[in-house]
Write a structure and sequence with these properties.
The structure is a homopentamer.
Chain A: H1 9-14, H2 17-36, H3 47-95, H4 101-122, H5 137-143, H6 149-166, H7 172-197, H8 202-224, H9 231-253, H10 265-279
Helix pairs in contact in A: 2-8, 2-9, 3-4, 3-7, 3-8, 3-9, 3-10, 4-6, 4-10, 6-7, 8-9
Main location (chains A, B, C, D, E): membrane
InterPro entries (chains A, B, C, D, E): YneE/VCCN1/2-like
Subcellular location (chains A, B, C, D, E): Cell membrane
């Protein structure tokens, strides 16, 4: 997630460098053609690029809307994981017999491991990183048998809670209530994976991109005939806005791609870690994650 | 689902071949008329096609919005099926007496069969394909008595779980919790069928299509009087963008039509198959489905 | 629901016949005035109707959006009724003692009657049609004491299920689970009635309609001065698009009005009937409802 | 709620009388200035008011959208109250011992009183009106100790249901299910109060209003130079449309203000009253509420 | 929350003072350049700023939409806290043995403390303010061990309710129902924190702001050539509208920032306090919070 601190200009323009060069080249070509073949280029009414620009802004607005919704849904999912993680610890403390504090702690920390692991997995990074201190080596080995590592951790917690019931430290009814909370984690995991794995309709992006170049060409022809000193800057500024907004939309669409615009899953997992330690009254709690220069992961 | 890999140009343009030909013909007719009857064709202010173009982009944006929502809802339904399938296996393992592992396995694999069968059924393909190894011949025969094959599989699972309760391997309370999960599958199935069977308001699409041709005619008249070398290309490019976006919307509306833009139900069912095998600690798990050239079903 | 088959042109144009005549009359009046009083009519810049047209398309888009949402919500409600009806039968079969098959059948068929009756009631038709074979004469008589007939059927099912509990054929816990399903039917019924009884803000439609005529008048004045052969056709075509889209929105708003654009409640109820017969393993199942010429109710 | 019957023109124009006078005054001032100082007023390109008009329609569309959502949410809340009220009676009849019919009736009628009282309270009217026949004098007195009268009625029902449980006429499990229904009423009440008490962002409305006057001024200057006979009518008609749509939005925003555009809470409460009497098999049921001349409250 | 009473003009314009100065400076620079270098500045067609203005209004509309949704979601969360707080008291009174009134009161008032504390915490103010009379000193001390103070209060309530169960004053089933209500508070807390901690996509705001200045520059060049007396006022008025709407959006985005446009969390907590006292039949209830001059916090 980008923070409110000053975002480096370099970061912003690196995104559309190539496209801006294309726009300038198009502008220069049209200008050159205009100078040499002035009599052959008929007039392009300014209303043509103006209406194309309006159409682009309308379609871009749709694109931004849907992309924002994906990004916000991703954030909501991780927000729900925070809430349900707190509820899980409170429920374990309320429902399980008091002598089983060690097992409550084991389940709660394994759940924190699940949070870290899910975040890494969504980003395509090593899902076993950061969790060595939270689970034991047996659990670590068990994870290797699964293609979906976080699902393995979820199964371990489900089975250990089932064992608490079988050993009489949890009543059937409390067991079902805890199970409902586990189902929420299963849902959250699947929802995040859905966002990760579903590609935004590709053709839509292609056509929008194409329209921006149609706009650039028609606008440059339209401005070309009046010997305009601000033709190229104007082309670059307006098409730059469109291209940057389109890029913003594209980045919002994929919030688990290990980029500065990502949902800050590691920071959220760390918050859950701290809350869990507080609720378990642990003596040692980790420090909150600090933002990088202008973003937080 | 289209993947991010290079989409063949041929695939894109095959969709609007016929319409583009219409647009060119309209452009040529207007041009010819303009040459022979130049004095009789009055001026068409460029503001007319410009405003029609803006109106089209606004209405297209509504169309894209609703179509995207249908497509995304279809994807959400199949995402929910993934989550609930994982929860089902974990619940069976937590709730059913341990000696009944064979029945747990039978129910879990029959559920995987339900996933494959539902996907095929939605696409209008054979709902009994791919499931021979997952259910026994008795189940296969029972399916023939039902007009809705996946519903038959759901009933078998519901009744077998009820029998586990009757035989004392499941308590009443656990039974109700498992039933809640089965209700979710019934909901997901019905929701997908709703999207499949509900036709997007037909008249809306007709009027939008009609407006695009009105736009083409007015624009070609408007450009016709200035002896424009880019009249035809401009007509084709702008109306092509509109037609392609309209086609994109149409394809998103129907995500279960056995097309490259479909929701990848077979791939999702395969993921569920793999997860289920992992959770059951099966020795053999199937391989994930590989994408076709530029899409995955 | 309109099907994808060819919609008769007559059906479409019957809807806006009167308005189109108005538009032509306005166009002709302006034209006549223009011929006789040419010097007195000042110029109307084309930008005025162009911007009004854009404004109409924006406001029409809002109208279409909300209308579509109502239509889609109506379809979702009936989709939910399908899902919950299947779940109800599966729950009855799972929860009620096996010797009570006859009562399960009675409740399930009475529920099918509720589906037919609700559909008829929403459309303002006879709510006791089509259900003679599904409920007995005693139930039929009981319905007469209620102003809301489907609610009477729902109460009968609720009380009969409560009696199953009182007679010991259903445990308390299963009873509550079945009750949860009945609550869903009560919700669905009320939601459909809400859509039926809530009138879309009337003033909004009035003002939009008024703006379309303002557009027609300004456009015809604007085109009037240039002796235009396509003035009247253009007026008719553009305002016709607006009027047809506005009419589409109006029809989507009221999906229970016994019109071709209705939610196909009878067809959905028939599907439920078929599914129920399959699940009950009845020997006789009704045939699915066939679409009328170009729509299905 | 406005009904579909003919809405008096007087009702519509009373809403924007003052603003229309402002618009006419602005138009006349600009015209006078134009006549006397014709050489000093430079040209205002028509594109300026045209683009401002488009911007207003876009922003108005956002405003209408959010206002409609508030209005529709208010209607949904009252729709949910209908559904849950029916479910409440059915649950009381299913769950409470049969000999306690008198208490079931008392609770059901007190609940009807809650519906009337909530509607009155939301509108800022006397929350104790219309309910004298539904609750006894003791309940009436108890209400005086509460600042929120409907909440008092809800508490009475909750405590009486708890007493049924304490006296053994209701099992614990049924009690929890009934409590779930009461929680829904608490939610509905709070949601309606939220809509009532949350003011739509005031600055937004101010700026939009301001833009409409900017539009009027720029348009009148723009039209002023051509000695236009339709300047004033055009100004009034276009700005009138905007002002009426803005007013429509404002009225939709506040659906509990005792205005013709209100959510018809009294009529809904009456429907609940009738349904409850039918379900209780009361001999006397009240008549449905008839609409006023062109609206229903 | 801004109230409907007259908002001071000073409050509104303080927000965009700096930007308005920038706009005037740009206008004056362009004017000066136009006077001295009149022959070198080519014509800027008015269609360029007009279309940029339209594009800004479309993108602003998206921005307002999403910002409004955040603001409304924040208000919904606090509305849900009101509802669930009322339900909590009613459930405690219905479920806990009557002799434990003192503990019911202690839990209910601690919950009110949680409401105040959460509001303060979200605004970055002292989370221990206003709650001295509601919880005892032991609770106060316990809060110091937690980094998230409201979470500490929630844990205390969860554990005290669990103790009521352990001591036999609450049955298991009622316990689970109360726990469900506590889970809702955990959810509401996390959801509000999510809105507080998630920064609206920064780049989007930057690009929109940039486009407004591009609009100002192009419009001032476009108007500059005609020696216009209303160039500067027009620039200020139109860009002022855009800047104010953009600022409105920005303020709606962050509803927990201790500003007049905040969600009125303190006032809502006070309402909960009053309702709780009424339901507990306390002899003393606090007065409702009065609005500041033109807003309420």
């Amino acid at each position: 997630m980008l923070t409110n601190t000053k975002i480096p200009i370099a970061y912003i323009f690196r995104k559309i460098r190539v496209q801006i060069v294309y726009v300038i080249i198009i502008g220069l070509i049209v200008k050159s053609v205009a100078i040499y073949f002035i009599d052959f280029i008929p007039q392009m009414p300014i209303a043509i690029p103006a209406f194309i620009g309006t159409a682009i802004s309308v379609l871009l607005s749709f694109n931004l809307n849907q992309s924002y919704d994906r990004w916000w849904e991703a954030r909501k999912i991780w927000g729900a994981i925070v809430n349900d993680s707190r509820s899980l610890v409170l429920q374990l403390q309320s429902f399980v017999s008091e002598e089983k504090q060690a097992i409550i702690r084991q389940i709660a920390l394994r759940h924190v491991a699940w949070c870290y692991s899910l975040g890494q997995n969504l980003r395509g990074l090593d899902p076993k990183k950061n969790i060595e201190d939270l689970i034991n080596t047996e659990d670590m080995r068990e994870m290797d048998n699964h293609s979906n590592k976080p699902l393995a951790l979820l199964q371990m917690n489900a089975l250990q809670i089932a064992n608490l019931k079988k050993d009489g430290h949890l009543t059937e009814f409390y067991h079902v209530q805890l199970n409902t909370t586990l189902v929420k984690f299963s849902d959250a995991m699947g929802m995040a994976e859905r966002i990760k794995n579903t590609i935004f309709p590709v053709t839509y992006r292609l056509f929008l991109h194409f329209m921006i170049y149609v706009f650039v060409v028609t606008l440059s022809i339209s401005l070309g005939e009046i010997d305009s000193i601000y033709e190229i800057p104007l082309l670059v500024v307006i098409s730059g806005c469109f291209l940057l907004l389109e890029r913003t939309a594209t980045h919002l669409q994929d919030p688990f791609d290990n980029r500065p615009t990502d949902t800050p899953v590691t920071a959220v997992a760390r918050t859950i870690h701290i809350n869990t330690c507080n609720l378990l009254k642990e003596s040692k709690t980790p420090a909150p994650l600090n933002p990088e220069s202008f973003y937080i992961l």
